[in-house]
Design brief:
It is built from six helices and ten strands, in the order βαββαβαβααββββαβ. It has about 210 residues and is of the alpha/beta class. The chain has a single domain, classed as NAD(P)-binding Rossmann-like Domain (Rossmann fold), CATH 3.40.50.720. α1 links the parallel β1 and β2.
Length: about 210
C-alpha cells in the first residue's frame, strides 16, 4: 500500500510513519521542512516539500497513493482555520488524484463528543482551546461532506508511551476517556487503512 501522509513530523505522524514503514508500506510524506524527516532512512519513504494548505502540494503527496492519512497538528495559540482549510485542500487534491480513502485524526471533545470528556477538559475546550476545537469542528464537517470514503478518528488525551496495542475503538465512547498513546492511535489508523471497519463513521479511541 502507498500512503500519503500529512503531518508526518508531528507526534502521531512520526508513529504512523515508523509503523507504516515497518509494515512494508510506502509512504509519501508532505512536510514544510523535509529535513525533519532526515533521520528516517528507508527507500520506501518519499519526503515531499510542501504546505498542506496548498492543493497543488497535496497533489504531489497523493500521486500514486492508495489512502490519505491526515494527522496534522496546530498549537492552540496558532489556531485559526488551518486544519479545516488544509482538509478542504487535501480533499480537492484527492479527488483529482483518484484517492478515495481518507483517514483524519480529530479529537475527543469535538462535535457530539463534547459531553464525553472530563469537566476540566470541557472548561479548557471552551476557553484556551476554543479556536482550535472550532477549527476541528470545521475540519470534521469538510471530511463528512467530502464524498470520499472517510473515517474520522477521535482519540482521548494523547500520551507519548510506547503503546500497548490494547485500546478500545467505538463509534460512541461510553466509558471514561482514558488516555491513549500516540503509538496506539497510529496502529489503529494503519489497521483501519488496511482493513476498513469505520468507513463513513467516527472512531473514538481510549486506552484500555
Amino acid at each position: 500500500m502507498t500512503i500519503a501522509l500529512f503531518g508526518a513530523s508531528g507526534g502521531t505522524g512520526r508513529q504512523v510513519l515508523a509503523q507504516a514503514l515497518a509494515r512494508g508500506h510506502s509512504v509519501r510524506a508532505l512536510a514544510r521542512t523535509p529535513a525533519k524527516l532526515a533521520d528516517v532512512s528507508d527507500p520506501k519513504l518519499t519526503a515531499i516539500q510542501g504546505d498542506a494548505l496548498s492543493a497543488d502540494d497535496d497533489a504531489k503527496a497523493l500521486e500514486g497513493a492508495d489512502v490519505a492519512i491526515v494527522v496534522l497538528g496546530v498549537p492552540p495559540q496558532a489556531a485559526g482555520s488551518i486544519l479545516s482549510d488544509s482538509a478542504k485542500a487535501i480533499i480537492a487534491a484527492a479527488k483529482v488524484a483518484g484517492v478515495k480513502r481518507i483517514l483524519v485524526q480529530s479529537s475527543l471533545g469535538v462535535g457530539d463528543s463534547a459531553g464525553r470528556i472530563s469537566p476540566v477538559m470541557r472548561v479548557v475546550v471552551k476557553t484556551t482551546m476554543a479556536k482550535l476545537f472550532a477549527d476541528k469542528d470545521a475540519q470534521e464537517a469538510a471530511v463528512r461532506e467530502s464524498g470520499l470514503q472517510w473515517t474520522i478518528v477521535r482519540p482521548a488525551t494523547l500520551g507519548n508511551g510506547a503503546g500497548t496495542g490494547a485500546y478500545e475503538a467505538s463509534e460512541r465512547m461510553e466509558k471514561s476517556a482514558k488516555a491513549i498513546d500516540r503509538a496506539d492511535v497510529a496502529k489503529f489508523l494503519l489497521d483501519e487503512a488496511e482493513k476498513p471497519a469505520f468507513i463513513g463513521k467516527v472512531a473514538e479511541l481510549r486506552g484500555a
